């Protein structure tokens, strides 16, 4: 008779059995191991960790990547209460708990939920503040471990596409994919032949459930693309430049030839905004309820759609603006200009937050990924470049394309799609947060017309392409985030849930002034004004209340407290303090010299930022 | 070719029947929750605004006294019972849940100077201007019986205050001297004096029960040990202290309500510097009482307002006032730490919430969770200027407001003068005296 399975001892024989039975097929991710960028969503949920477990294996689990399991090896057991014995205690029945202790959590997954940067040293402050900060840090660590452990509960896994040995996934056609996948997924691939109304722009709603598209010759339609139920279809009898859903699928902004119009889901015109004229591109910032419009006249206008007021109208002073995208991480608007620069804008500033020289020709398209770490640009010089948006905006990789990309889009999991003429190329990276590698495309597809608009559908493995022949919905396995958060954007929400969400979202509308490059800056100490306040206080009081009082030696026992010895002790302390000061200044000096050495030479050039 | 598309079964995400709860799958991945900090900030701002909107601290006014309320006492066993003594010698017992008076006693001729309950809650003591100490039963007399005290002690001098021991049948009175009485005897066990001035209040320490503190009109606070025949030590302040109150959680901490508009929290082991000077009142502070948690105390002032101070802060966190409330003479924090009672000159006892925006009644678990979340948010963002301004804003009656302005100007002028003097004299010749040390004249042992 077999005893209860013991973890660790039972696994190797089973593995051997597996290997004896059948040779395991080679998986494409087993060739390269990237321990640095292994993140949770690229990995399976850790509940399949213990194979030796008598647990019914779902058919879904058969493709569980084995290597990533190994990469998850560095795990630490959290021991919240006291020491745990190495041997789990046996129960009365003699059975052993096969899962002793709390579920293991990998360090990398926990790292994803970290909010406090531990590499930064705690400020030199009063002991009370310091201890409070330490407590907060410990609390934060515990919370991040708990949040990482909750990833066990995620129900869905991301899609994937892999070729046979030597097979290039880019060669796989859409028809093959449609044939291979289940019926429900196959139904997500469709073509709308709308040759009559010219190239189309399209937009998916926040939940990914609804699709709106508008043709150059005035055709505007919105539909629930999953059920293929049409919500409205109108012809605005005017050129449509761009189309965008507002916070929910009930409102639709359409940039028409003259002005910006807002329609509801019945196709009824609600507003005509004449202050936004000759709009070329639209972007909606969902947490700020701002509709950013760029116009032919060179203005970037922010319209608050919750109150209907224009928050800011910024003159970019760079001529016609027709390349615009938003950074979903910090709500900064990226504008591409004809002189090859990309400028970053916030409504709080009249000037751009940053200007990045990206191309030798004009910029044709810009896209920013969902984590806000990389930006892809393509220019008239036929280059496609990827920039790191953290720090100094350095280029990570570049590639010359034969035609140059006219449209770019990032998916939730970091896939990059580029529309070049009538071809769509998609590149994939290693994991979720890593930039796509431009060497080999992941998928390609040829359309019946020239691409005019691209967007990945949120929470579905679908890329929507608007082109001169209509709309194509492409299947891109592994594009979307598999597990949505029901309180943020729920594709399956009911009407009631949507109404409740709308009220909550409006209540916590983030003010437009808070848009800046680092959205976490609000939680950090405002050192500048703190120091200013300190200075003012010292000036007002006439002395520094926090300064250390000069050392006063305590009188010692009888006979030991002569004046000479007092002076000696005082001198000793003073000398020690002086030595400390000198030591500190010596430490700082080389740093200063380094800083001073840099600007020596010719005038600083704009290209200096690319020097590594 | 191997391919897997993301394909969700709607049955896993949509409820089966209308009677079910909606399914809300969660994913705590930070990329799905962008703008965490700005959104939390907005939530904190909203929570702070709502806190001010819902700040309605006034609960009830108990009227019935025919003269100013001079003293209050809590019932040690029943949260709903409170005793009050008025300036016309009347003592009333109130039921707080029904907000009515359940018993009226004409206890003394002239003022009822002090009132205190026995630790078991069976009887209470009053002292009055008629030089008597009377012990009364808590329950009223039966039908046909006359309202009579259990015991009456006739003294030689006027008693100005009384307090009962927290564990034994001993009580202390003050007047010309501090007397300690056994309940069974008609003469004091011991009398203690230090100097020849009238003592305005005496308080037993609730933890170290043999310790007493008293304050006299010759500006000093005297500490006694019941086991010794002589007082322990005293500290002399700039101005007279009206009452003191011991911290119920820290045995050696007490707070003194002073005539110079300030309250001083002392550590009885080191009386030369107060632990904290609490300033915000604009007139003499008449009474002080600690919350049972020992974290906060409430003070009543001649400026017609009461204020709540955290023990470790020098500024008050809350101020309560109404149009009709006159000089507040006595104040008590109830034993469940949720309410505050104050008795004032214009014959009313008022009941306030200790936390102005607190929702009364039973909270559902969701309400509680929302409250906790909002509290945490408010704490996290409390130093942001916009939130700080809203959280700190209080409407004040015009006299208090203008007094505050005036005193600020006076203080500023005084400080400027001090700084100038410091600047133009030889370094070291003019000492910098901190605000804490300024008010202590001497400590005598």
From TrEMBL, chain A:
<feature type="compositionally biased region" description="Basic and acidic residues">
    <location>
        <begin position="573"/>
        <end position="584"/>
    </location>
</feature>
<feature type="region of interest" description="Disordered">
    <location>
        <begin position="1"/>
        <end position="104"/>
    </location>
</feature>
<keyword id="KW-0597">Phosphoprotein</keyword>
<dbReference type="InterPro" id="IPR001680">
    <property type="entry name" value="WD40_rpt"/>
</dbReference>
<keyword id="KW-0677">Repeat</keyword>
<dbReference type="InterPro" id="IPR036322">
    <property type="entry name" value="WD40_repeat_dom_sf"/>
</dbReference>
<comment type="function">
    <text>Scaffold component of the nucleolar structure. Required for localization of DDX21 and NCL to the granular compartment of the nucleolus. Part of the small subunit (SSU) processome, first precursor of the small eukaryotic ribosomal subunit. During the assembly of the SSU processome in the nucleolus, many ribosome biogenesis factors, an RNA chaperone and ribosomal proteins associate with the nascent pre-rRNA and work in concert to generate RNA folding, modifications, rearrangements and cleavage as well as targeted degradation of pre-ribosomal RNA by the RNA exosome.</text>
</comment>
<keyword id="KW-0539">Nucleus</keyword>
<dbReference type="InterPro" id="IPR015943">
    <property type="entry name" value="WD40/YVTN_repeat-like_dom_sf"/>
</dbReference>
<feature type="region of interest" description="Disordered">
    <location>
        <begin position="544"/>
        <end position="612"/>
    </location>
</feature>
<protein>
    <recommendedName>
        <fullName>WD repeat-containing protein 46</fullName>
    </recommendedName>
</protein>
<dbReference type="GO" id="GO:0030686">
    <property type="term" value="C:90S preribosome"/>
</dbReference>
<keyword id="KW-0853">WD repeat</keyword>
<feature type="compositionally biased region" description="Basic residues">
    <location>
        <begin position="14"/>
        <end position="26"/>
    </location>
</feature>
<feature type="domain" description="BING4 C-terminal">
    <location>
        <begin position="441"/>
        <end position="519"/>
    </location>
</feature>
<dbReference type="Pfam" id="PF00400">
    <property type="entry name" value="WD40"/>
</dbReference>
<dbReference type="InterPro" id="IPR012952">
    <property type="entry name" value="BING4_C_dom"/>
</dbReference>
<dbReference type="Pfam" id="PF08149">
    <property type="entry name" value="BING4CT"/>
</dbReference>
<dbReference type="GO" id="GO:0032040">
    <property type="term" value="C:small-subunit processome"/>
</dbReference>
<dbReference type="InterPro" id="IPR040315">
    <property type="entry name" value="WDR46/Utp7"/>
</dbReference>
<feature type="compositionally biased region" description="Basic residues">
    <location>
        <begin position="57"/>
        <end position="82"/>
    </location>
</feature>
<comment type="subunit">
    <text>Part of the small subunit (SSU) processome, composed of more than 70 proteins and the RNA chaperone small nucleolar RNA (snoRNA) U3. Interacts with DDX21, NCL, NOP2 and EBNA1BP2.</text>
</comment>
TrEMBL record, chain B:
<feature type="domain" description="Translation initiation factor beta propellor-like">
    <location>
        <begin position="198"/>
        <end position="307"/>
    </location>
</feature>
<dbReference type="InterPro" id="IPR007287">
    <property type="entry name" value="Sof1"/>
</dbReference>
<keyword id="KW-0853">WD repeat</keyword>
<protein>
    <recommendedName>
        <fullName>DDB1- and CUL4-associated factor 13</fullName>
    </recommendedName>
</protein>
<keyword id="KW-0687">Ribonucleoprotein</keyword>
<feature type="domain" description="Sof1-like protein">
    <location>
        <begin position="354"/>
        <end position="440"/>
    </location>
</feature>
<dbReference type="GO" id="GO:0032040">
    <property type="term" value="C:small-subunit processome"/>
</dbReference>
<dbReference type="InterPro" id="IPR013979">
    <property type="entry name" value="TIF_beta_prop-like"/>
</dbReference>
<dbReference type="InterPro" id="IPR015943">
    <property type="entry name" value="WD40/YVTN_repeat-like_dom_sf"/>
</dbReference>
<dbReference type="GO" id="GO:0046697">
    <property type="term" value="P:decidualization"/>
</dbReference>
<keyword id="KW-0698">rRNA processing</keyword>
<dbReference type="Pfam" id="PF04158">
    <property type="entry name" value="Sof1"/>
</dbReference>
<dbReference type="InterPro" id="IPR051733">
    <property type="entry name" value="WD_repeat_DCAF13/WDSOF1"/>
</dbReference>
<keyword id="KW-0648">Protein biosynthesis</keyword>
<feature type="repeat" description="WD">
    <location>
        <begin position="62"/>
        <end position="104"/>
    </location>
</feature>
<dbReference type="GO" id="GO:1990756">
    <property type="term" value="F:ubiquitin-like ligase-substrate adaptor activity"/>
</dbReference>
<keyword id="KW-0396">Initiation factor</keyword>
<dbReference type="GO" id="GO:0016567">
    <property type="term" value="P:protein ubiquitination"/>
</dbReference>
<dbReference type="GO" id="GO:0003743">
    <property type="term" value="F:translation initiation factor activity"/>
</dbReference>
<keyword id="KW-0539">Nucleus</keyword>
<dbReference type="GO" id="GO:0007292">
    <property type="term" value="P:female gamete generation"/>
</dbReference>
<feature type="repeat" description="WD">
    <location>
        <begin position="321"/>
        <end position="362"/>
    </location>
</feature>
